[in-house]
Amino acid sequence: MKNQIIDPSVTGDEIDYNELIEPVDYDFGLNRRSFVQLLGAGLLLVVSAPALAQERGGGRGGARGPRIISARLHIGTDGVITVMCGKVEGGQGSRAEFTQAAAEELRVPVSQVQMILSDTVLAPDDGPTVGSGSTPRTIPPVRQAAASARELFADFAAKKWSVDRANVTIRDGKATEKDGKRSLTYADLAASEDAAKDLNQAISPDVTLTPVTEWKVLGTPVLRPNSGDIVTGAHKFPSDISRPGMLYGKVLRAPSFGAKLTSIDVAPAKGMSG
C-alpha cells in the first residue's frame, strides 16, 4: 500500500513514506504432542479444562497464580523439574530469575530446572508482562509452589523411611536422613505412584520460604538459560510471532511536525479477504 503525506515545509513535493517489514516465522518449540513426549514419563497430571481454568486463576495482575502444585511444576523421572509460568521473556531476564526462584526453594541447581513461559495451553495465567511486575507478582507464587513441592518431597522421604519429618533434610537435590545413611532424589519421588496425587494438592500459602540470609541461588549471578539465543539473535520475541492468516499493520507517521495526511489509497486493503 502506498501512502502519501504532504510536508508543509516542502511545498508541492510528495514524500513517499513506506516501511519494509520482513515477517519472521515464530516457533514455540513445544507443541502438545512434544510436551507429552517430553514429560510423559514423569508426574503429568491431567485435569478437566474448567478445573484447570479455576486452578490457573492468577487474576489480571497475576499475583495469585495457580492454586495447585501440579499446575505450576512437573517432576520428571529423570529428575528434571519443569516450571510453567505465564510471563514472557522479552530480554529482561525473567526466565533466569524464575529458574533461580524455583531452584532456590527446591534446593536444586539451576541446571535441573527448565522453564516453559507464556504457553497459553500449558502455563498458568500469571497476568500480563508489563510494568516491571514479573518480579514482585510472579516470583512469590513460583517460590511458594516450589517450596510446597519441596515439603512434599521431605514428607515422602520421611514416610518411606518411617522416620520423623525433622530427621529429613533437603539439600543439593536430595532428601537425606539426618545421619546421612539414606537419601532420595526428586527422580525417586517422580517414580512413586502416590506422588502424582500428592502434587495435585493445593499450594500452601503458609509454606516456609527460604530467608534471604540463607539464599544459595537467588541473588547470585547465573548464566541466562537463553543467553546464547539472545547474543546470536536467535531468541524469539513476541513481535516475531507469525500465525496462519496473520496480517501486518503499520503506523503511518508524519515526516515532520504539523504535517497533514492529504491522501491515501485504501483500495488494496478493501480488496483483501475479510
The global form is elongated
Number of helices: 8
The secondary structure category is: alpha+beta
Percent of residues in β-strands: 5-15%
Estimate the mean pLDDT confidence: 80
Q: Return residue spans where pLDDT drops below 50 for at least 5 consecutive residues.
A: 1-15, 43-63
Count of strand segments: 9
What report would you give on this structure?
With 274 residues, this protein is α+β, with helices and mostly antiparallel strands. Strands 2-1-9 form a three-stranded antiparallel beta sheet, with no helix packed on it. A three-stranded mixed beta sheet has the order 3-4-5. Helix content is 28%, strand content 13%. The radius of gyration is 25 Å and the shape is elongated. Residues 1-15 and 43-63 have low confidence and may be disordered. The chain is built from eight helices and nine strands. It has helices spanning 32-39, 49-56, 94-106, 134-161, 186-190, 195-199, 227-232, 267-270; strands at 3-6, 14-16, 73-75, 81-85, 113-117, 168-171, 174-177, 183-185, 260-264. The longest helix has 28 residues, at 134-161.
